[in-house]
């Protein structure tokens, strides 16, 4: 008589952390299913380019097979120059690196071979999804879970339920309903009040900057300070088909989306970015004059409790990773790196156990809670210095 088919690991969300975990399970021969509320990877804007730390790269390489790792590594941009941000006064064009207030704690930029390594979020998702496509079920919005006698089912927004799984992993981002149910509301994500705009422009718009990672800061507005960060990769500079991205972020009150709607994408976001930077030095104007207006997008800056990842009663068959467990501001650039560490850790524990086993989620959460709490603190501390934001008992949650 043949052995019964093992119950799959159920994964809520198809973000980078979920997909990297799926790769780990795929290579170990552990069955899994991914439930994603969107209709495809192209349904929404993918956000800003991600900088990868040494820890993040090590985690990714520990999971992927050699061929997939090589595809991933080849897709990464490698930026030379200094290993710190080059800072500029947005209006005068003055190099302010030596007196910049950009916090350095946790901000060692170079990660391999003296280079700053980065990749577009969308490219990362597509590479991590390779070989897992048939296990992704689209238009499946996970709103909670139901424990069974010997497993767990995901519950969807339409009232239907998934097949029975051995384990449910909530990786569906800052509004994770799995995290809310699992932690009994202990996992909170706060709206810091700080806001931003993502933008893109052709490589020719960045030629006056040269190679490196740059922070361009404007302290002249009465509402507060705001800045733009961008990564200029010399290897792509002469390719007119490539756009470089920039990310604008400001103190609470500086950047306001029409009708407070931060889902807006396109010309309205582009127009505000151009208005805010109208008096900037000519060296920086091409980033906005030549931007791809259709790709501009507003965004909110959120953060988990600065005190760290809270504790909750362990549920052996349910856990969370990535932003569902520990949302971070972009100030230190370590949110995605911490998320892939989660994937590598949980995947390794499941591989070693041959799939779900008692004690796996407890061991994972204990180790994750330590390094992720440190990362949240670094991220929050950097953000308070850059954008004068503060989280307290009166800060609204998302």
TrEMBL record:
The organism's place on the tree of life at top rank: Eukaryota
Cofactors (names): FAD
Organism name: Parachaetomium inaequale
SUPFAM superfamilies from the UniProt entry: FAD/NAD(P)-binding domain
Keyword set includes Nucleus: no
Gene Ontology MF annotations: FAD binding; monooxygenase activity
UniProt KW Transmembrane helix keyword: no
Protein name: FAD-binding domain-containing protein
UniProt keyword list: FAD, Flavoprotein, Monooxygenase, Oxidoreductase
Segments forming domain FAD-binding: 8-377
């Amino acid at each position: 008589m043949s052995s019964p088919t093992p119950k799959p690991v159920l994964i809520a969300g198809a973000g980078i952390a979920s997909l990297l975990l799926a790769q780990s399970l795929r290579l170990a021969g552990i069955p899994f299913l991914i439930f994603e509320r969107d209709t495809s990877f192209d349904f929404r804007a993918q956000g800003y380019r991600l900088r990868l730390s040494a820890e993040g790269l090590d985690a990714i390489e520990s999971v992927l097979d050699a061929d997939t790792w090589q595809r991933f590594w080849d897709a990464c941009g490698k930026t030379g120059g200094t290993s710190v941000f080059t800072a500029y006064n947005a209006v005068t064009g003055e190099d302010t690196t030596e007196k910049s207030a950009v916090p350095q704690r946790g901000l060692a930029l170079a990660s391999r071979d003296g280079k700053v390594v980065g990749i577009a979020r969308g490219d990362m998702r597509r590479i991590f999804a390779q070989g897992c496509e048939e296990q992704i079920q689209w238009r499946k919005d996970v709103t909670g879970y139901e424990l069974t006698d010997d497993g767990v089912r995901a519950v969807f927004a339409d009232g239907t339920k998934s097949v029975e799984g051995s384990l449910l992993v909530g990786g569906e981002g800052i509004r994770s309903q799995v995290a809310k149910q699992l932690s009994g509301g202990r996992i909170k994500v706060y709206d810091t009040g700080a806001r931003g705009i993502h933008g893109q422009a052709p490589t020719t718009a960045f030629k006056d900057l040269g190679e490196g990672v740059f922070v361009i800061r404007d302290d002249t507005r009465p509402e507060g300070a705001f800045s733009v960060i961008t990564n200029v990769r010399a290897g792509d500079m002469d390719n007119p088909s490539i756009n470089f991205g920039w990310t604008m972020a400001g103190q609470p009150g500086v950047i306001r989306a029409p009708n407070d709607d931060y889902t807006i994408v396109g010309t309205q976001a582009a127009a505000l970015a151009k208005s805010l930077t109208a008096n900037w030095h000519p060296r920086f104007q091409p980033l906005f004059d030549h931007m791809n207006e259709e790709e501009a997008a507003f965004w909110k800056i959120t953060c988990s409790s600065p005190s760290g990842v809270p504790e909750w009663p362990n549920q052996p068959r349910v856990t969370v990773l990535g932003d569902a467990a520990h949302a971070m501001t972009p100030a230190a650039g370590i949110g995605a790196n911490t998320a892939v560490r989660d994937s590598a850790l949980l995947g390794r524990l499941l591989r070693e156990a041959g799939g779900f086993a008692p004690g796996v989620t407890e061991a994972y959460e204990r180790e994750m809670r330590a390094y992720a709490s440190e990362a949240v603190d670094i991220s929050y501390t950097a953000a308070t210095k850059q954008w004068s934001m503060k989280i307290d008992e009166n800060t609204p949650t998302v």
